[in-house]
Amino acid sequence: MSGSPFAEWAASEYVVEESIKVVKELNCFDSDVNKIKLCMKKISIDELQSAYEKLGTTRPGLSPILYTPRIDDDFLPKTFEELIKEAPRKAILSGFASQEGAKLTVWPRQLVRGQIIPREEQFTYDGNRLFEFIKNYISPEEYFGSEATAKKVQTMVEEFYANDIPQNADYKFWLQKYSQLISDTSINMPQLEEAKLRAEHDWPVYFYQTAYFNYDAIKETFKGDHPVKGAWHLSEYPYLFGFSSLDQFEFNENDWTIQKFWLELVENFVKNGNPSLPGLTWPRISKEKFQFVNVTIEPVVENDLMSDMLTFWKELIENYR
């Protein structure tokens, strides 16, 4: 399923700052860490939850989750890259939906709300809102040390994600671009990089992209209006687990076909360490070639998933880190 420890939101040093805020809110702060621990052990669950609610549960930007693991030489003794190189190899089934960011950007009931555009604001969303987000959370001056460099990076990101603006660009066009940006930075890029690194170190990795999506899964909430097109985050849930993280909906013939595909591939993967099916040989990623299965009504093996996006971000990070 979608997600990777390589993502900014999954593991970062931000948790230290946020944890200190909680400790101070509960009057447990001290220069002696052991005294903090003793104090925190006396705090009830209700008191802890009240502190969380008062301080907030998410932040805006690319790292909306406040409390995450971190590389601390204790629970995580080494970087994820080092651990992948050293850990025993096991088969990996990994993948994501074609438009992961939709649920993170426009879904009104999303709990992690740091990237959400409220429904009432979606109808007026435009390029200025997108470019302001890029300026504030992808290329702020404090990241790069100078206004000129920050502006250059901002322009590069804007041009990559909004290089095909039609004359009649409406709110749906800009929400789609915003959702793609969040998809790439939060899910796609880190997960693809993780899969490639595993493959380079001889892990058997089988990758997919979910392209099929029944828009009845958002029909009740959006009344037939589709602000973002593509398969949303967790769109596999109805077929694997029998419930939807979006709206509930009745299966049509295509849904039953997709469910059969999902259940059989997972069964084969669990039994054999390989998700291949009769009529579909699922190749593992190699050092030389990134092949994946595009999950449609007729699933097919394809090559080079989002290679342009990966090249763009890799070069940007290497040149401006």
UniProtKB/TrEMBL annotation:
Task: Enumerate the Pfam families for this protein.
Answer: COesterase
Record's signal peptide: none
InterPro entries in UniProt: AB_hydrolase_fold, CarbesteraseB, Neuroligin/BSAL
Family in the record: Belongs to the type-B carboxylesterase/lipase family.
Carboxylesterase type B domain location is 1-313
Instruction: State the source organism's domain of life.
Output: Eukaryota
What name does UniProt use for this protein?
Carboxylesterase type B domain-containing protein
Write down the PANTHER family for this protein, in alphabetical order. Answer: NEUROLIGIN
